[in-house]
Design goal:
three-stranded mixed sheet, Trp Operon Repressor, Chain A, Alpha/beta knot, alpha/beta, binds S-adenosylmethionine, 2 domains, elongated, 18% strand
């Protein structure tokens, strides 16, 4: 999979892309993540990225010219499955959408900044708008990092024990169960006996029940969804 990220602030990706799973996925050739500095697609002397909004008001808007130039340059090189804009106005991101994106070949992720992006970019070039939740970030870079991280870890081979992904929260409309590791007793707190039994069936039953209990307590909304997140979809 190739992901092209368009941003006015490439250094914001330094940490997320250079550690842990994302680092390994890139080194192992599972994911190619290419950052594009929006400023290098400007043509004026001051390398201007933004301008004031028509109609007045606070905040600056990312200008259309560098964004068109950047996206169209990329699209001339290869075809993309989606051009994603990170925006609070987008479809709210969840595991189902993440699973779908992980099966794509080429994605562009465009990071908004300031007050937003000129609407003509969205109308002409963006195919999917994604919000990572009902709150406002300074820029789309952290949202893009969240999307990239969650998508890339699903690419087969990226996580050594791929089976562990299947029991993660949200894969089956449930939260994952609680986990324990050694020692079996710590400060008078004991690991549940079923987990120490060595009996695979007992362990599985304990985990299934514990996951169900946790989900019922904390996220009963998940249990009301159809299996495999086949719930009614919000249009992007
Ligand atoms: N004026 C915009 C609004 O109220 O909807 C917020 C702009 S925000 C300060 C700057 C950029 O951060 C946005 O263009 C978007 O790319 C990104 N952003 C902010 N919150 C986000 C969220 N919840 N999900 C995805 N991207 C977000």
């Amino acid at each position: 999979m190739r992901i092209d990220v368009i941003t006015a602030f490439p250094p914001l990706f330094d940490g997320p892309l250079s550690e842990s799973i994302l680092k390994r996925a890139q080194e192992g050739g599972y994911a190619e993540i290419v950052l594009h500095d929006l400023r290098s697609y400007t043509r004026d002397k001051h390398r201007t990225l933004d301008d004031t909004p028509y109609g007045g008001g606070a905040g600056m808007i990312l200008k259309p010219e560098p964004l068109f130039e950047c996206i169209e340059t990329l699209q001339n090189e290869r075809s993309y499955d989606e051009v994603i804009l990170t925006t609070p106005a987008g479809r709210v991101y969840n595991q189902k959408l993440c699973n779908q994106l992980s099966m794509r070949e080429n994605l562009i992720v465009l990071c908004g900044h300031y007050k937003g992006v000129d609407q003509r970019v969205i109308d002409a070039l963006v195919t999917m708008e994604i919000s990572i939740g009902d709150y406002v970030l300074t820029g789309g870079e952290l949202a893009a990092a969240v999307i990239i991280d969650s998508v890339v870890r699903l690419i087969p081979g990226v996580i050594g024990d791929g089976e562990s992904l299947l029991s993660d929260s949200f894969m089956e409309n449930e939260l994952d169960c609680p986990y324990y590791t050694r020692p079996p007793e710590f400060r008078d707190m004991k690991v549940p006996e079923d987990l120490l039994s060595g009996d695979h069936k007992r362990v599985e039953t304990w985990r299934r029940k514990a996951a169900e209990k946790l989900t019922r307590e904390r996220r009963p909304d998940l249990l009301r969804k159809a299996p495999h997140g086949n719930d009614k979809e919000q249009k992007s």
